[in-house]
From TrEMBL:
Residues 1-29 have a biased composition (Acidic residues). Its cofactor is Zn(2+). Belongs to the RBR family. Ariadne subfamily. Pathway: Protein modification; protein ubiquitination. It comes from Saponaria officinalis. Keywords: Metal-binding, Repeat, Transferase, Ubl conjugation pathway, Zinc, Zinc-finger. Gene3D superfamilies: 1.20.120.1750, Zinc/RING finger domain, C3HC4 (zinc finger) (3.30.40.10). Its EC number is 2.3.2.31. The keyword Membrane does not apply. One of its GO terms (molecular function) is zinc ion binding. It is an enzyme of class 2 (transferase). This is RBR-type E3 ubiquitin transferase. Residues 1-33 are annotated as: Disordered.
Length: 554
């Protein structure tokens, strides 16, 4: 019999390693500035159909049942068989259809652990059955048979289910028979558990329901704190920035804060870099040295430069190199670091250069982050200006040119902020050391910095335009002049943002062998998820179209 400690994770199908967890707690105030702004100003645009759906706790069962119904109707399966298939293929309906066409129904079922054959000998034909686990005789009504044909007593089945559920493996509980990979019927599991412990049965049902989110790469929990209880389902693209119905904005790829044009990997490295350069780490770096054996920080509490770590390794405080345990007035045994070495000088120069390079990008990142927080106060000022302008009968009541400009300022300021961490890794040696020559790197850096500089200059101009007291102008012509200037600057900034993204995608990241995908730039802002019921018809139409394409192509 299979060991209880085995994991069912090996039976999941996965094209690539997906990481659904994000870390929003970056530990540095400079990283939290942009995310701290709770309110968002949106463009006054007509509503457009969204490819994002909000799944609430109430609609979670409905969303899961939609996908189950598709597979049940297509393959004429029972609900628990359809659920087994979808959990194995990470709730990817299109992938299930593709495997069906490429490998056939039998192989599809075998890989997922689905058994749909009918039993030739029902248990009721036996007066008693000896359980293969406890070796006790059981009456027919005390025996349960799974779809694979294996029968055991209800007590052993129940104990098996309870152990698996408590180990967190409730989504794919396999048969107890030796080398049987069939997945047990969740209906029979539920029936047996309710007799034994209703709390465990409820836990089992909850895990099955939440598997639609936990195992589905198209669905992510909203990472808002406190948690709003919503999940977001993306129909088309994994690399995008979304806004939940609760108002929280996040990256769908890593569930962290929005960070485009940085890729998820770049942002993860940048957050860690900023944490490593915090005051605590700076103190540790200044007052301690790492043990050459266990790498723990060691503080020197005496005048002798021979120090011993708690692990027992002696080393030289001057250079950090491991030494012998003997120490005399003349030398430290097995070690000499008094001679000047050119390599040490080169290493120190490289470290100093890299440090100043980080300071350059971090200072500009923080400057735009701080500007974003300060410009957030403009919202109240702009509202006051709009009210005063609307009170004048001679002025048009349409003030969208002001609100649109304010939104564009916020959006472009975010882009500028995150463009500096992007540049730090794009033109450094950490990620793309072997993918660009020094000459190519310099050409691409100059190209990007030209785009960045133009955007930065025009963002500052737009900020100054919005700070002008145009609501106090008594001359109607002067107000219209200010209006046209703001509209023009708004359009220019939007165009420059789009151009910089095209440069990043086509000229910088496109030619590289390493894949780094960034969330695309959208002039109309982050896509806001719609309620599930609003998109149900659209989802069904897309599903019907995908089935037709798969079978027509084959």
């Amino acid at each position: 019999m299979e060991d209880y400690a085995d994991s069912d994770d090996d039976y999941y199908y996965d094209d690539d390693d997906e990481n659904n967890n994000g870390d929003d707690d970056d530990g540095d105030d400079s990283l939290n500035g942009i995310q701290d702004v709770d309110d968002h100003i949106h463009l006054s645009l007509v509503n457009r159909k969204s490819s994002l759906q909000v799944i609430t706790r109430e609609s979670l069962a409905v969303a899961q049942r939609e996908d189950l119904r598709r597979i049940m109707d297509l393959l004429s399966l029972k609900e628990h068989h359809a659920r087994t298939l979808l959990i194995h293929y990470r709730w990817d309906v299109e992938r299930v259809l593709a495997v069906l066409v490429e490998r056939g129904k039998d192989q599809l079922y075998v890989e997922a652990g689905v058994r749909v054959m009918e039993l030739s000998k029902p248990c009721s034909s036996f007066s008693s059955l000896t359980c293969g686990i406890c070796m006790e005789d059981a009456l027919p009504n005390e025996v349960t048979t799974m779809d694979c044909g294996h029968s055991f007593c209800n007590c052993c089945w129940t104990e098996h289910f309870v152990v698996r559920i408590n180990e967190g493996q409730s989504r794919r509980i396999k048969c107890m028979a030796y080398k049987c990979n069939a997945i047990c019927d969740d209906g029979k599991i539920r029936t047996l558990l309710r007799v034994r412990d209703t709390a465990v049965a409820e836990k089992f049902d909850r895990f099955l329901l939440e598997s639609y989110i936990e195992d589905n790469k198209r669905v992510k929990w909203c990472p808002s704190v406190p948690h709003c209880g919503n999940a977001i389902r993306a129909e088309e693209d994994d690399f995008l920035e979304v806004e939940c119905a609760c108002g929280h904005q996040f990256c769908f790829g890593c569930c962290g804060e929005t960070h485009s044009p940085c890729s998820c990997l770049m942002w993860e490295l940048w957050v860690k870099k900023c944490q490593d350069e915090s005051e605590t780490v700076n103190w540790i770096t200044s007052h301690t040295k790492a043990c050459p054996k266990c790498h723990k920080p060691v503080e020197k509490n005496g005048g002798c430069n021979l120090v011993v770590c708690v692990c027992g390794q002696p080393f030289c405080w001057l250079c950090g190199g491991a030494t012998g345990k003997q120490h005399t007035w003349d030398s430290i045994a097995d070690h000499s670091c008094g001679r000047f070495k050119e390599d040490d000088l080169k290493k120190a120069e490289r470290a100093k250069k890299e440090w100043w390079r980080y300071i350059h990008y971090h200072n500009r990142f923080k400057a735009h982050t701080d500007s974003y927080k300060l410009e957030d106060k403009l919202k109240e000022t702009i509202q006051e200006k709009i009210l005063k302008l609307e009170d004048r009968e001679t002025i048009s009541k349409d003030m969208s040119w002001v609100t649109n400009a304010l939104y564009r300022l916020f959006r472009s300021r975010r882009v500028l902020s995150y463009s500096y961490p992007f540049a730090y890794y794009m033109f450094g040696n950490e990620l793309f050391r072997n993918e660009m020559s020094k000459k190519d790197q310099e050409i691409k850096r100059n190209l990007f910095e030209d785009q960045q500089q133009q955007l930065e200059a025009n963002v500052e101009k737009l900020s100054m335009c919005l700070e002008e007291p145009f609501h106090e102008f008594t001359d109607h012509g002067k107000v219209m002049e200010s209006r046209m200037k703001i509209i023009t600057m708004t359009s220019i900034v939007d165009s420059l943002c789009r151009s910089m993204y095209e440069c990043i995608e086509n000229d910088l990241l496109g030619p590289l062998h390493t894949t780094h995908i960034i969330a695309p730039y959208k002039s109309k802002g982050l896509e806001k998820a719609s309620e599930l019921c609003d998109l149900r018809m659209h989802s069904c139409e897309k599903y019907s179209s995908s089935i037709g394409k798969i079978f027509l192509n084959n």
